[in-house]
TrEMBL record:
It comes from Sphingobium yanoikuyae. This is Prolyl oligopeptidase family serine peptidase. Keywords: Hydrolase. GO terms for biological process: proteolysis. PANTHER family: DIPEPTIDYL PEPTIDASE FAMILY MEMBER 6 (PTHR42776:SF27), SERINE PEPTIDASE S9 FAMILY MEMBER (PTHR42776). Residues 54-232 form the Peptidase S9 prolyl oligopeptidase catalytic domain. It holds the Pfam family Peptidase_S9.
Length: 234
């Protein structure tokens, strides 16, 4: 699990798929690595993801004796972006899952905030994605000032390098990263014959947490996916 916000994942009472105790109860060791801080990055976040994750994985294996062939990866939101980025750079993980992940920096940057629909004023003025991309997602410039760096930091540009089986889940009403980003990732991987599965949850926003039925389904899908690639084949 990729940490997306300081101390957020330390809350043991997190509901649904975000309750990490559920995965431990299924026999998994759960690691929540701290990601590089914004001021520590240069050139955008894509190529820095390994710095926060791989050393933590190595240390866990050293301390706990976990099988290095049975390491999985999943994250939500910026953690979904980190998941896409990591598997585009390393084959270290036997399986991965990205929930509401960002795949195309330009699309995310310019997306309108649908929660502002119906309110007076210009729709584009309601959106906060440009600020989120340049702060929380750690992009160093506005998209119109350096379009090349947005291309270089978009996971959709590196699907030919992905070999890790990837499960994707995305809400159709996501106001941060459009479901089209997951659909694009899936299409590019599927056209290359790579193992990928896409789950679209209708009516869900930027967290698969509104419908109890959806929460149960996604949790079952995650466990089935990781059991298949981390337990059944070794």
């Amino acid at each position: 699990m990729i940490r997306g916000k300081q101390d957020y994942w330390d809350d043991r009472l997190l509901p649904g798929i975000y309750n990490l105790q559920l995965y431990a109860a299924k026999g998994y060791t759960v690691l929540v690595p701290s990601m590089p801080r914004a001021q520590e990055l240069s050139g955008g976040p894509y190529f820095h993801m390994k710095e926060g994750v791989l050393p933590a994985v190595d240390k866990l294996i050293e301390l706990e004796g976990n099988d290095p062939r049975r390491v999985g990866l999943f994250g939500q939101s910026f953690g979904g972006y980190a998941t896409y980025s990591l598997i585009g750079q390393t084959d270290r993980f036997a399986a991965a899952a990205a929930i509401d992940g960002i795949a195309d920096m330009h699309t995310t940057y310019g997306a309108f905030d649908r929660s502002g629909d119906g309110w007076p004023g210009a729709a584009q003025d309601k959106g906060v994605n440009p600020t989120i991309v340049t702060t929380a997602m750690r992009m160093p410039e506005q998209a119109y000032r350096d379009p090349g760096i947005y291309v270089a930091n978009s996971p959709i540009m590196y699907t030919s390098a992905i070999h890790t089986p990837l499960l994707m889940a995305h809400g159709t009403l996501d106001i941060r990263g459009s479901v089209a980003e997951a659909e694009t990732m899936f299409t590019l991987l599927d056209q290359q014959g790579k193992p990928a599965r896409l789950l679209r949850y209708h009516g869900e926003n930027h967290s698969i947490a509104l419908s109890p039925a959806n929460v149960r389904n996604l949790y079952d899908e995650l466990i089935t996916w990781f059991d298949r690639y981390l337990k059944d084949q070794h």
